[in-house]
Structure prediction request, 631 residues.
Amino acid sequence: MFWQMVKGALIRQKNRFALIALTVALGVSLAAAMLNVMFDVGDKVNQELKAYGANITVTPKNSALLKDVYGLEAHEYLNESDLGKIKTIFWTNNIVAFAPKLDGELTLVDGSKIPAAGTWFNHEMTLPTGETLSIGVVEMKSWWKIDGSYPANDTEALIGQKLAAEKNLHVGDTLKYTGGEFKISGILSGGGDEDNQLLVNLSAMQKILNVPGKIGSIEVSAITTPENDLARKAAANPDLLSQQEKEIWYCTAYVSAIAYQIEEVIANSSARPVRQIAESEGKILEKTQLLMLLITALSLLSTALGVSNLVSANIMERSRELGLLKAIGATNLGVILLVLTEIFIAGGVGGILGYAVSLGLAQVIGTTVFGSAIVNNSAVLPIVSVLMVVVLLVGSLPAIRMLLSLQPAEVLHGR
Amino acid sequence: MALLELKDVSMVYNGKVRALDGINFSVEKGEWVAIMGPSGSGKTTLMNIIGCMDKATGGEVILDGIDLSDVDADKLTEIRREKIGMVFQQFHLVPYLTAVENIMVAQYYHGLPDLNDAMTELKRVGLEDRANHLPSQLSGGEQQRVCIARALINYPVLILADEPTGNLDEANQNLVMKIFHELHAEGHTIITVTHSPDVGREAQRCIVLEHGRIKS
Prediction:
């Protein structure tokens, strides 16, 4: 009998209940899509922030120490042969790009000196695992603008735009220095120190400095998890962590944990997070997630208000019918249960519809904002289900109050 | 002991409007009493109090040994469900349930719905062939007969009818009154509230209200 009454009410007031279902569907679709994006946004934001360059710098241990303590530059080097080991650490898949760097100076034929650096532009590298991949600044410095092309061999060079303007050099010109010459293959506009530098192949710079197989530093771009208290404690001194804390830290992609693991594989090295970038990543991620939580909360609040209006209108329209049920013996609880069942069936249909829409909506947001698909998180469905129940209950509160105050004597034949 | 006893019952709305004042009467088991009076005389107020849909602000109402002035709203609902069968002038059927389902709703809130019992009551009011029709597919007289069948389904000690023929034509009026006579003959206690002298005359006894007091 109960279900016949529910069915009858749903069919008779199908337009009203369809509106309730639509309201819930809209709220749930937005909330579920936002939650899915929020859970996946960490990786997406980190990938976006990779466009801003390296977040870890690896330097020789002694030179880092001298620079920290005395502010001195020391001519210490790392081994080029160790570079491949970076891709053997626990978080190898989070290392998206890296490039070696060897800084030096060139004395030009006119006697002036210019800063120069050797690096890999797009270096084919065979890892210790046998895997081959392309490594270098082309991958890591995606915002660099090149007028011309990257150097193809050791006789070509890339020149920063400011230096090029100063020396009146153009693409195709030759730059003569005391030990030879470079053909300018391209003019670089990067917005940083590189605009005042000459960039050549690492092997060319090694010959100039006479340090074969050596590099001065490594810039690493890694996908990381935002820092928290544990990460900050570990960054200060990993030895202060308990065994359990250390395991958690080591197995989480904190920038400090990745740096620590790089130090483990690169002999005599000091890997330091570029703190500004690491902190920015954390802050941007937190703010992005907060924004999405706010959108979720607001969409659910507006859904509750919409449901509240629709349900209240429904109760007012049906006051005689519900008053009659009370008159023939229904308790307040019995009538409330009947009305809530109707609302929850309509809301449930809307919720299922909304969740299905949210799966597509999340992908639209993912591809539009981040340029890649969003992974649907299995935790979203139960979370949204609980939120939907809360929203429907909150939205039904005014109607429940009306039902409690509904007097059969009033609605059936007045006092 | 009387089935229903009212002792000095009064009803004052908002502390000012006195709808009933010093009402005293009793109804014996098996009796058919008509409460009559013009509009505004307090008939509906009295019916709401006897029907456990409202509580008097003064005096005592004792139904089947229970003092209604002494119970809370939940208990009033229970008494209404267990002891009273109501017939309304406007019929008041659930619009999306069939005739037999409207009867079974009253069973549902009382205990367990039983299709056979519901059909038996429909048969008693001559509507077994209209069991699966919606109220909108029934005439006024038929709707009122469904309403009577619903009032009887839970074996109430008192049948309370508010202007049961107020919205009916003469033929249906006669049909409904015939059913009431049959119910009375079976021993049911009936109170009809009406302003119609014709309906009032059908009862064994008339109580006439005027300005909230018993005139005769």
In short: The longest helix of chain B spans residues 170-185. The first strand of chain B starts at residue 4 and ends at 13.
